Amino acid sequence: MNYDFNKIYDRESTYTVKYGLKKQLFGTEDIIPLWVADMDLAVAPEIVEALQKRVSHPIYGYTMQTDVFWESAQNWIKKRHQWDIARNEFVFAPGIVPALGFLVQAFSEVNDKVGIFTPVYPPFYENVQKNERELITFSLQNKDNRYFIDFDEVEDAMKNGLKLIVFCNPHNPSGRMWNKAELSQLLDLCEKYDVNIISDEIHADLTLWGNKHIPFASISDIAEQRVITCMAPSKTFNLAGLNCAYLIFKNEKLKARYLRLVQHLHFDFGGTFATESMIAAYTQGEQWYQGLLQHIEQNISYVKEKLNHSPINVMHPDATYLLWLNCKTLEPSGTLLKEFFYKKCKVGVQDGRQFGVDGTGFMRLNTATPFPILEEAINRITNSL
Predict the structure, then answer these.
(1) Is it the case that residue 333 has pLDDT exceeding 90?
(2) For position 352, which CATH number holds?
(3) Are residues 293 and 320 in the same domain?
(4) Across the chain, what does the average pLDDT equal?
(5) Cα 213 to Cα 354: distance, rounded to the nearest angstrom
(6) Is the CA virtual torsion 294, 300, 306, 309 positive or negative?
């Protein structure tokens, strides 16, 4: 089946965050929003058909996540990442962001030190600080337009009582994939100082140009005991509004500890359309998924080519449809970048400062959109430059 990833859909009347907040976030309705991480692309028709079939039944009662649901995830992860997950190692979550908050509560105490690698997805900060933990930030080192971990800085923090790490793999906003040597070096430190890891791997499927994602918990027996993995079909299949995600616990004691916190809140219980959408995505979405990756690669290549000789330096992503734009040559403090992009270019990219102080001078751009929309946005930027 051929899928049209360049068809433009009107999203204005669908209560969507991406379009509905244009005036509030950018000061104008006259803007192309390329900020929040959802796609302007129609989901696989196989998913639509599955949801329509379920909608046609007029009763929408409580829905179980049955063996069929979990087998779809098991088979998808095995095929994509060569990783075997047992049925009892899964726990449902209505979203990774709220799950991160509960995980921080489950595996640290108030005032404990919790580390993150910055710049990073904004909710990482909130899930640590608003749970009354002490936030420890590790600045990723930008070397030749690629991020690296400063392991000496991490070990110093562990010597001073770091209790937990919240990790992003692949990294958001840069699209950096961490290799086995890097994961192993971080894991060795965690084992030495008794630190557990929450690994957000929501972008794991969106690997580009033949790259292979390495689930952190899959690298060794020690990793299985230390790492809690967060995954979802939502980024891969554009299902963010259906609230479907899952956690993987290879360590039964860690799983039990987490469930003691959330089960009485019924947080491990999913909805009707979340269930139907994931089953359809993982069992029928392969062809659409492969077409999506090609579309994203083409869009990213176009942006890089257009901005190649401009003051904007595009950090090449290994994965995701997000581009991390280094605009420090334009304006190093970031103060005037919003004026440039929002008022002059009329393009709604996301302010890098939302990803922490290490994001100052950067902007994040979402390429998961029909090419005509992306082309217009990039032309506005290059013409304004």
Answers:
(1) no
(2) 3.90.1150.10
(3) yes
(4) 97
(5) 26
(6) negative
209 and 327: one domain? Answer: no
In this model, does residue 102 exceed pLDDT 90? yes
pLDDT of residue 335 exceeding 90: no
In 3D space, the residue among 11, 20, 17, 41 whose CA is nearest the CA of residue 371 turns out to be 41
**Furthest-apart CA pair in the chain: how many Å?**
59
Question: Vertex 112, ends 111 and 116: CA angle to 5°?
Answer: 115
* CA 288 – CA 44 distance, rounded (Å): 6
d(CA 288, CA 26): 33
The full length of the chain comes to 385
Burial letters 52-79, b for 16+ CB under 10 A, else e: eebeeeeeeeebebeeebbebbbebbee
Residues 336-351, mean pLDDT to the nearest whole number:
97
* Amino acid of residue 73: A
Q: How sure is the predictor about 334, in pLDDT bands with cuts at 50, 70 and 90?
A: confident
**Banded pLDDT at 269 (limits 50, 70, 90):** confident
Domain at 233, CATH number:
3.40.640.10
Question: Which residues, listed in sequence order, are joined to residue 130 by a DSSP beta bridge?
Answer: none
| Inside any domain, residue 374 | yes
- Is pLDDT above 90 for 48? yes
- Residue 358: which domain range? 17-44+286-384
CB-CB contact of 310 with 379 (8 Å): no
| 220: amino acid identity, one letter | S
Q: Are residues 237 and 374 in the same domain?
A: no
Structural domain contains residue 10: no
Question: What was the pLDDT predicted at 9?
Answer: 97
- Looking only at the bridges linking them, the beta strands covering 196-200 and 162-168 are parallel
Q: Residues 105-116: what's their mean pLDDT?
A: 98
